[in-house]
Amino acid sequence: MRTRDLAYWLFLAPVLFALAVVIILPLIIGVYYSFTDWNGIKVGSFIGLENYIDAFKDKEFLASLWFTVKFSVISIILTNAIGLGLALIVTTKIKSSKFLRTIFFMPNLIGGLILGFIWQFIFIKVFAGIGDILGIESLKGWLSTTETGFWGLVILMSWQMAGYIMIIYISYLEGLPSELLEASEIDGAGPFQRFRYIIFPLVAPAFTVSMFLTLSNSFKLYDQNLSLTNGGPYNSTQMVAMEIFKTAFGERDMAYAQAKAVVFFIIVAVISLTQVYINKKKEVEM
After folding, report:
1. What is the largest CA-CA distance in the chain?
2. Does residue 88 register a pLDDT over 60?
3. Is residue 41 part of a domain?
4. What PROSITE patterns does its record include (predicted)?
């Protein structure tokens, strides 16, 4: 038994070491720097909660935080709805199901910066061309306003992540007991009734995983935000990650940016853990 325990820890040691060096240690150091006037090169004096107080008074930071929350809520709902819909389509008995799975998953393989530039071309050039042909003025000047920039980011995020989330739902849908679905069909249950009372409750664990992934990805979005709108116009589509980056490397205020990052980390951690707890509780009830 001792040999097994020793082998277990020997195999686990490299992972624990990497976790400590890459995540835990930088987190501890970052929290410490947030209480100082660190300028990126050397640590000056300890200033206590001054950076945190300034962060909660910073209108630009609070605006980016609110924009990120709105974006995350909409993109989480759309991405999971589209992902589940695609999973239901490709798990039906159609000949091209494997081909469709590949096609739907492919956007997730494209890098964030490249994806942002692709959709920037679509929203600006293609939409303007369609607007000229059809005479629809609202299609012209996309990404030039806060509203269209917001929906542009939502469309981009949903398009990229839906295929990835689809794979998670597929794994649960293919594990559903076929005899239960057949019995419900014999009893006269329609497609909607089967989905609502049998399929939906049984794939509840997939919602926990999918919502956690979409939540974390939506909140920490940076590269797509940079390449699609660059926070414009007038920083109105600037998300928290970009605002923190600009504070650190644009204004060269590293300690203040670190304090914002700590606040952001706490908010995301609380929301994520609350979401997982609520979803897990629903799974048990089912």
Report:
1. 77
2. yes
3. no
4. ABC_TM1
Asked, for residue 6, whether it belongs to a domain, the answer is: no
Considering the domain boundaries, does residue 134 fall inside one? yes
192-201 exposure pattern, b = at least 16 Cβ within 10 A, e = fewer: eebeeebbee
98 CA to centre of own chain: 26
For residue 76 the two structure tokens come to 């989480």
Give the CA distances from residue 144 to residues 71, 124, 136, 226, in Å, rounded to whole numbers and listed in that order: 17, 9, 16, 14
23-40 pLDDT, tens per residue? 899 889 989 999 998 887
Cβ-based neighbour number of residue 137 at 10 Å: 9
- Give residue 172's domain range: 58-285
Radius of gyration of the chain (CA): 23
Residues 236 and 150 sit within 8 Å (Cβ to Cβ): no
pTM of the predicted model, to two decimals?
Answer: 0.85
Give the tens place of pLDDT for each residue, 114-136.
888 889 999 988 988 888 888 88
How confident is the model at residue 284, as a pLDDT?
44
Residues sharing a CB contact under 8 Å with residue 131, sequence separation 6 or more, in sequence order: 137, 138, 139, 140
Question: Letter for the amino acid at 13?
Answer: A
Q: Which are the contacts of 275, defined by CB distance < 8 A and separation ≥ 6?
A: 208, 211, 212, 215
Q: Provide the pLDDT for residue 244.
A: 93
Give the CATH number for residue 144. 1.10.3720.10
